[in-house]
Design a protein that fits this description.
With 426 residues, this protein is an alpha+beta fold. Among the domains are: 231-246 and 371-411, no CATH class; 256-362, Chitinase A, domain 3 (Roll). The chain has helices at 33-38, 51-54, 64-67, 117-122, 125-134, 137-167, 171-190, 196-204, 210-230, 239-248, 250-253, 271-283, 288-294, 319-325, 372-399, 404-421, and strands at residues 26-28, 47-48, 89-90, 100-102, 106-110, 113-116, 258-267, 304-307, 337-341, 350-362. The strands form 4 sheets. The protein has a 4-stranded antiparallel β-sheet with strand order 8-7-10-9, with helices on both faces. A two-stranded antiparallel ribbon has the order 1-4. Helix 5 packs antiparallel against helix 6 and helix 6 (137-167) packs across helix 9. The protein starts with 25 loop residues before the first strand and ends in a 5-residue tail after the last helix. The relative contact order is 0.11.
Amino acid sequence: MHHSGELVKKRWVSRGLAMPLVLVTLITLGGCAALRSTGLTGARPTTITVGDFVANGPLPVVDEASASGAPVIVEEITAPIDASGLGSRPVRRAAQPGDRIIVDSLVGQVNGRPIFAEDFFVEIDERVLRARDELTPTAFQDFLRTIIQQRLRFVVRNELLLAEAESELKPEQARGLFAWLKDVRQGKIAESGGTQTGAETRLSDEGLSLEEYVALQKDLALLNNLFQTRIETRVVVSWRDIQRGFTRAQNELNTPGSIVLARMAFRGDAGPARAQDALDRIAAGASFVDLAAELGMPPSFLATEYELDDAGRPVGAIQEFQDAVAGLTAGDTSRPITRVTPGRAGAPESSTTYLLHVVQYTPPVERSLYDHDVQRALREQILGIRRQAEEDRYLQQLAQRVVHSELNDMGDRLYDVGRQRYARKR
């Protein structure tokens, strides 16, 4: 229902790639004919009741929301109603000439598409409110300016993309788009029980109305078409590119194997017998690591990792260890290994007997250029890099259409609105 002088606004709140379109207008009440006609510029009433409106025909309904500056839906009272039993509602005070009430602020336009403050802040409300409670006033002002600049760049970029996408639609494409959107709308209604009310209820869980959902699908379709025509067609990967990519990525694609060893050490002439006894207990089901701890082996003996060379031998291990673990895999235990160490300065020689256990074995990975999975992965990686570069180039080209002074002005207006919106209550 439209009234003379009524401000009608539509809000299309899109998620993800689509942009919120926001409405903000400063109304100065001084000299406003529409307000004079309602009688609000005279005395300051303190209380209104429904009975005040019963016999006077259609009049705007003023509630607590309007008194607090929140959005108001103005309806008509089309028939007299019984006011008995209904209480009165206090109103803080009537608006006075010269008062300014923020209904919503238009902060600027991008390619003719308006940018409004209310929906601009909707997406960052929670973060800003949390920061206001956690930061000092000075730090919060810095945070507010930074997050507004980041959000504004995102909004302007997406508005530019959407405007560009719409301008590039051919007439037949536009007709096809609207036919598809009609199917989208009917499909959402059909899957929600066949009623628009059911669809609205289902979408309300996602914070969308049916119209907003259809608008979001439209924006996504437009952006997808734009990226297909302006970016994807310019991104090409040749066989030579894949070959060069394989050469650069060989160290990542071809990885050496590794082995994690635990060991026990038994010193002296009794070492071989003690090692054999431990080996028998392991064969009977004892855990190598648990047994090593029981026998007092230091923790450093329980896990040492080695990289494997091309022959599968642990790099950095002594020769006797390399020979002992050849052919072993995870869970295997080596035969006893006895090493004799010559004494120094005339001291007698000493011997130590070892048992080695393979805690973990990771075989080497060798990939070929002619492996289809390798080619596919390399192609996707190169495509991603080039697609991003092409997107950046295209966005920079679009950004040249924005006058930076106007962008700075929008940022300043949003910052002023934000300071009022998030002012700490005293």
